[in-house]
Here is the input.
Amino acid sequence: MSAAGLERARAKMTAAGIDPVAVETFAHYYRLLEHGETGMIAEDSIEPIDSESLADVEVADEPASKALRTTAVIKLNGGLGTSMGMERAKSLLCVRRGMSFLDVIARQVLHLREVHDAPLPLLLMNSFRTSADTMDALARYADLAVDGLPLEFLQNREPKLLVDGLTPVSWPRDPDLEWCPPGHGDLYTALSGTGLLQALLDRGFERAFVSNSDNLGAVPDARIAGWFAESGAPFAIEAVRRTASDRKGGHFARRKSDGRIVLRETAQTSQEDRAALADLDRHRFCSTNNLWFDLRAMAEALESRRGILGLPLIRNVKHVDPSDSSTPEVIQVETAMGAAIEVFDGARTIEVGRDRFVPVKTTNDLLVLRSDVYDLGSDFVLDPASAPPYVDLDPAYYRLVPEFERRFPEGAPSLREATALKVAGDWTFGAKVRVVGDVTLHTGAAERVETGSVLEHEQQH
Here is the structure.
């Protein structure tokens, strides 16, 4: 049964023109699934880690700039933001002054090139769904591409597998739904398969800085580049201290069997270990998904492993149509790029401030980013003017971007003096609204916060 399923999956990927190494990587994980592998990391197999801090690191200006001159910047840009009701690349969302995530990223890179006299190539890993819109949006930046290197490379795709039988799902009403991305761990396979890894080495680049395009705090920082270059480490991830909002998320740990750092995701944690996962005193650091790796070390690791790094499996069970729970259950075989930290002996973590971790996963995050909590300077770096408040918008009215936009037609309220904003019910905000302290809004009918209002306490209608 499973052998036939794998052959059908191979044939489907080959017919779609998928890179042969990506097909073999998929086959590797298929066999793990076939043998019952879940990717779980047991609590008794790991121990907590400590991390050095960027605040304690000293790197002189010239070594920092020199390191940045041999660094390439990679942004993961394959997401559509479907959970927010989007059908285009999430990075095309407007975040500030008429600029999208992509606009800010492009201007950050162009500014750093000038300051450090660095080529600093920008490479976007797009999916087949985000490529066209992304490249159209970047066409206005004529100087962004670096000679001999493309602005984009494409993430691979793989078939969704029916839970019952591990065969590729067939969905004629929307064939695109038969496919899924292999998770961002595909970064290394795609870099190698497209020839980009070798192209970067041939042009004298020594390291890559990788981050998500929806995290504008992830600026390619010269000081961290200098630290990484001087450390001699083959791989490193920027870590932040976990807070209550990270309680359900993944964390770093050290594997007892070999002493290597691992990244344990929620999907790799059994139910009986969930209490330990949520223990912020035990597991204190989580990943920003901002990572650095030595290009030569990565090329050698891929070569020695025949193109398959062997990252831990993430078995993700979903419905073939994620928006329709009546459709068949499927398995999406995924890996996380940060999990590559366990592949390399001598890999490191470095603690950074929360200003380098500003991901936008929900409209709650988007409201904070659009507000005056962050200043955007001439270097296009986000500068927090105050601690970001807790925001919880009623998902019945604000979860989807079009509905969110309708309820903030004049832009985001001032949140610089806010500690929390909780909105229950259907509220539309006028212009120049200020939120002060901890504010909760309740309503059973459509209501409006009038222009110029100052919200300072609970309001109920």
Remarks:
- The chain is about 25% helix and 25% strand.
- The mean pLDDT is 94.
